[in-house]
Amino acid sequence: MLGVIIPYFKLSFFEETLQSLENQTIQQFKVYIGDDASPESPLALLEKYKGKFNFVYHKFEENLGSISLTKQWERCIELSNNEEWLMILGDDDVMSPNAIETFYNNLTEIEEAKSNIVRYASQIIDENGNPVSEIYQHPKLENAADSFWRKYTWKTRSSLSEYIFRREVYSKFKFVNYPLAWHSDDLAWIKFSNFKNIYSINLAQIYVRESSLSISGKTDNFEQKKNASLQFYTTLSDKYLSIFRKEQRLVIIAILENEYFEKKEFSLLIKIVKWHLKHSDIYNLAKFFRRIYINR
Fold first, then answer.
1. Within a domain: 217
2. pLDDT grade for 222, boundaries at 50, 70 and 90
3. Of 2, 10, 133, 146, which residue is the least packed, with the fewest Cβ within 10 Å?
């Protein structure tokens, strides 16, 4: 069974999300809606969808998403029962009508591949529901490092809503609390994969909305995103560089080298030296020291 988790806060596009759940060609799922103390009550809207699909609604008394978006995700997951598979669907995102059916149609192959993560094709839509990107499809089986690298090099996109993951790996790893949850999903797929392949379904899509109300669409949160990125790449370098190819490791380390030259923090210098010694070579470490000398 699949549990669809919706951390709710915005009413603006919520009906389109609910309509997409009603329109699923099979109803073999249960929806858990966790209201993050929103000032916009969805109760009247939810009344329209009673009996259309199986859902549970809970309003939290305190807003948590403004403090920690990942903690809001996690307390919404706690509303669910014991479904083996989980999906966190944004309150402004939309599923194609065949999304749930294609998941179950591929479940035997997913189990045979021992995949912990399933990913749909995705497309970005605007405030009016119009597509503003291509449909991003993926290799049927792909390791998490290659998947992230395609995103990093702008060959694909990735966000939270288009993924399904096993409860077992979620319970083991949870989400890392970065500012705005920026990159929290990227790190989750690396950890949740547990070094097994991500299984992709390209015959169904998740339509991910970018608007002035969404984190990705806002322009006043640059510093928070930058801080989250620094934390994320530091985590990658500390714990997961070994899963990347050498040329990829050098790019990740270079991101943090640039941060060092901006802030000149001694603790980051020590880490960069350690990462080069463990994951690079003396030649690239010497290049780093030469940059330090030139920029002294």
1. no
2. confident
3. 133
Tell me the average pLDDT across 35-50. Answer: 97
One domain, residues 103 and 236: no
Output DSSP code: residue 181. G
The answer to whether residue 57 sits within a structural domain is yes
The verdict on 177 and 234 lying in the same domain is no
State the burial class of residue 200 (Cβ atoms within 10 Å of its Cβ: 0-12, 13-18, 19+).
Answer: buried
**71 is in which domain, residue-wise?**
2-209
pLDDT score for 287: 94
Helix (H, G, I), strand (E, B) or coil at 295: coil
Pair (126, 252) in one structural domain: no
The answer to whether 27 and 53 have CB atoms below 8 angstroms apart is: yes
The whole-angstrom distance between residue 153's C-alpha and the CA centroid of its chain comes to: 17
Residue ending a domain, choose from 184, 209, 234: 209
Strands (E), the chain: 2-8, 29-35, 55-59, 85-88, 94-95, 117-125, 141-142, 163-166, 198-209
Residues 150 and 210: their CA atoms lie apart, in Å, by 20
Among 198, 177, 199, 197, which Cα is nearest to 187's? 177
* Residues 135, 205: Cα–Cα separation, whole Å: 8
From first CA to last CA, the distance across the chain in angstroms is: 59
Give the amino acid at 76. C
Residue 216 lies in a domain: no
